[in-house]
Amino acid sequence: MIQLDRDDPLADYRDRFVLEEGLIYLNGNSLGALPREARNRAAEVVEQEWGQGLIRSWNRHDWVSLPTRVGDKVAGLIGAAPGEVVVADSTSVNLFKLAAAAIRMRPGRCKIVSEPGNFPTDLYMLQGLEGFLQGEVRLETAPREVLSSHIDEDTALVVLTHVHYKSGELFDMAAITARAHEVGALMLWDLSHSAGAVPVDLNGVGADFAVGCGYKYLNGGPGAPGYLFVARRHLNDIHQPLSGWFGHAEPFAMRDDYQPADSIKRGLCGTPGVLGTAVMEVGVELQASADMSKVRAKSRRLGELFIQLVEAHCEGMGFALASPRDAERRGSQVSFTHQHAYPIMQALIARNIIGDFRAPDILRFGFAPLYVRHVDIWDTVQALADIMATGEWDAPQYKQRSAVT
């Protein structure tokens, strides 16, 4: 393992993150680590741009262009072109905006297609849209094995997450997008567990829309803004319902009537969150500086190693692989099921090895290639095997559920 880390072409990136000595952090698929430069940037924005520049910083430090400037940098990570991505709001809000706009673009069609077990907020937002439209459209979910057969001429929009949040399974983005277009439907991808971890080529597959978050593999910090993508061919046709002033063609003209911007800016709503977006920019730039082919190669290697070691050292202890074995079908995480998944994960966390639990029985381990080492994988599995062999997980303190799991 030590030699693998010495030969790792991404090894130098680890020092660019704040990671305490002895910590093994395998939860970058939920919240990315803090880039060192983000601390400096946060202080600069707070103390100088806000503290000294005050309102002048909208012009002096070009705060007003943050959503599109950072959006263009995100675009480079997801196969989009400049002017097709804007940073704004949250993933949930952006999904609602684009889904509502897509329904309007396909009048007469009555169905949104997704899958059961999709990330909950995606389903909740679609259910909310369904209720808001009072029967004009309905949400239909179908297991991925038969999903394509549910995409038909009644379908206005297909909404799916590229990398499944529990299993890490990858959808065939090109095939599903092609199927949606075959029947005249639009396609919206959630990239929250993809961007920065696996190659994404939205324009290459002809995707219509996408959303994602900034706080996982993009290392933008807790609650970092989300982003939305609109393919250039749709920019003049999309009318999202949250027509706030920053999406106006002339925000500071202060007119009573709304006129959408003739660019991706029409995806904006209210005043951008300057602090969050400025810090997120650091994480996006850091991720964008890495060679994605090397990021993906390391991600696959870490996942394969983890699976091999768990199955070799924890055999007969009740673990079952919940992620695809084939690395081509798996994002940058590996999940195992166990009937005592929650206390087992708590026992690992008590040893300063941080993964997470997803109900009802998933232990989830994320591998952010810029800072996870091969030796971390070995040490995690040795700790896991010891926790199981000694029954450490069965201690009462590990069974009390926390608010966030």
Automatic annotation (TrEMBL):
The keyword Metal-binding does not apply. GO terms for biological process: anthranilate metabolic process; L-kynurenine catabolic process; L-tryptophan catabolic process to kynurenine; NAD+ biosynthetic process; quinolinate biosynthetic process. Pyridoxal 5'-phosphate binds at T91, S92, F119, P120, T121, D122, T161, D190, H193, Y215, W245, T271. Its cofactor is pyridoxal 5'-phosphate. The keyword Hydrolase applies. It catalyses: 3-hydroxy-L-kynurenine + H2O = 3-hydroxyanthranilate + L-alanine + H(+); L-kynurenine + H2O = anthranilate + L-alanine + H(+). Its EC number is 3.7.1.3. It comes from the Bacteria. InterPro entries: Kynureninase, PyrdxlP-dep_Trfase, PyrdxlP-dep_Trfase_major, PyrdxlP-dep_Trfase_small. Keywords: Hydrolase, Pyridine nucleotide biosynthesis, Pyridoxal phosphate. It is an enzyme of class 3 (hydrolase). GO terms for molecular function: kynureninase activity; pyridoxal phosphate binding. GO terms for cellular component: cytoplasm. The modification N6-(pyridoxal phosphate)lysine is found at K216. Pathway: Cofactor biosynthesis; NAD(+) biosynthesis; quinolinate from L-kynurenine: step 2/3; Amino-acid degradation; L-kynurenine degradation; L-alanine and anthranilate from L-kynurenine: step 1/1. Homodimer. PANTHER family: KYNURENINASE. Belongs to the kynureninase family. Catalyzes the cleavage of L-kynurenine (L-Kyn) and L-3-hydroxykynurenine (L-3OHKyn) into anthranilic acid (AA) and 3-hydroxyanthranilic acid (3-OHAA), respectively. This is Kynureninase. It comes from Halomonas chromatireducens.
